[in-house]
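Re: acetamide structure - here you go.
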Amino acid sequence: MKTVALLVTLLGLSVSSFAQSVNPPHNLMPVPAALKFQPGRLPVTEQFTVAVRGHSDARLQAALARMMARLGARTGFTFTRGLASDADKASLMIACQGPGKAIPAVDEDETYTLEINDRQATLSAPTVVGVLRGLETILQLLNGDKDGHFLPAVSIQDKPRFPWRGLMIDIARHWQPMEVIKRNLDGMAAVKLNVLHLHITDDQGFRIESKPYPELQQRGSDGDFYTQDQMREIIEYARQRGIRVIPEFDMPGHTTAWFVSHPELASKPGPYEIERTWGIMQPVMDPTNEKLYELLDGFLGEMAALFPDAYLHIGGDEIEGLHWKENAKIQAFIQTKGLKDNHGLQAYFNQRVAQILTKHGKRVIGWDEVVHPDIPKNIVVQSWRGPESLAAAARQGYSGILSNGYYIDLMYPARDHYLNDPIPADTPLSINEQKLILGGEATMWSEWVSPETIDSRIWPRTAAIAERLWSPREVRDVADMYRRLAVMSKQLEAVGLQHLTYQTAMWRRALGAENDRATEFYSALEILTGLVEPVKGYRRGTMQQATQSMPLTRLVDMARPDSHSARAWAHEFDNFLYDILPLEKENLPAHQRAFLDQAFSTRTVTQSKNYDDWVKTLTDEMRRWRDLKPTFEEIGVRIPLLQEAKPLASDLSAIGKIGSQAMFYLVSGTLPSVEWRVIMLSRLDQAALPKAALELVAVQPIRELVIAACEWPNLKTMTAEEWKRHVKTLAAPKKQ
Ligand code: ACM
């Protein structure tokens, strides 16, 4: 009976999901607001041409040239240069109504529609930026099979859910040169992000050229700063892609780098040096000093002219106010002005800065600490402390964007960011308050990234955030997101990002050219790195003593957040334990097995398999883990940089052995002793402890395998669903 029920459930599910999915699976990311695939295809051949009807300008034509270059790189076709004259006969016809905003702005119309049939693709948009968004969709639609390259017939009406979809890059903690910013702008454009927020100054660096105050960058940056010409180049590169650039000058805290040349602006006497480590530092501007506002007027006026965007970010985060407390003059100022406390003093400072920026034609954006009853309502609040602070700001009438939950520097999986919604379905906000939520920004704080690793910390996870901010709220199927993210990741590589390739380059460099066992060592590193992830949250800082000059070339830097291969293996173990094992234990007739094999045939890593194949695949993999230990002993001897891999390899070897034993118990139908269970789980707990700032992701599936080996007789009285819950509950990791 149970088996029949399970089969019916499976059949029922597949029938209803088929009925719902009018569209075949596609690779679009972000998913358009509305799309409908139709039968038919537009072949993409060497004769592919583009014509423009209506508005055309240099930005549009440059975008078309870039698109054709990408299409050419993919297909190998040499296309005819320039635009076709006969719009009716062109393969792709662009109908653009106008240029849109002269300066990219938050109220830019990014709408586009795309109609593709077997004769022509038509991309229509009210603005050039709308066309840019549609061109990226076309590139994502390009497909190929035995009959050649093609665009599928489709009808798309698309527009973003939120107007503010950003990526913040911190260029202060670790300097990020021009090529990093440019390739990331290309990545942003590919997933329809439209705001690059540059965190330009902090305790660790002052990274923009000031002409009236050149000492700021000269003494505050080690020579790593953007000249104004270079910054104009970035701004123009971004504009070409429909992306705004918002500069952040974090103040009054996070300002040590200013005080190297201007100690008189600080709340405590100098001298000051560029800060080389990370954390919340105490140096803070002295809001009682009129000279400070003179300098800010000059500097911010200069920056207001350099950056064309309507907004300028003043930071405002993490003021502990110790140096304010220690300064009698500042405390007296708080008393005489009736400012109440340090937060009141910060609000006073913010008001003064807001006045300066208003004078220079800018609107203010700041981190959520800037909210204060005395602060005008026309600022934008960027919430890093939580959705509550965003909601609270909206209730008080402030516009806001969400960054809490999009902290990609903290190494959480894409799934967590993806499900984090600026306006969740159960939002407590009224319709009018919801209108104040403009969107969100992923934040790439750069304490732990170098130009070499930064792409791997931004991508592909930021594509999942981009989808959250563009696509309808209902688009939230995590498995489908990961399927499309894997495709998108390669397309992001194709625009020049190095999130995939940096890793192999790092392995090769660490192993050295002359090493006679380099090939073997390389494979071992590949396996180990695939099964670990950097520790999450702010933990790395508690495990490694770092300074700005420490090379970020260690094992943890070689590992990717949200490891694709770890996730794929976990999925395999999941399939085995919760789908395949329950069926095997019920001894299904062969024809039912065949049906189920088919039902599972879309799974990752391995295609349809029977029980014995599953056992063999997983056992082989666990043997590979087990056998790594001696290789890493040798690597540790020869390569000091990789010595820290030894304990991890030892753990991986142990869990490989434990897993193989558990598999033996399951397959042979014998029960291990209670003692075995206790000892194995305790060893797994040990393996779960981070080492070298890395977590062994492979521990959890093996924990479940051990529990399953001890609990399998319960399967006789449980449904597959109950079995899964039972094992997962008993195998839940200890809270660390
Ligand atoms: C922040 O993360 N301190 C804005």
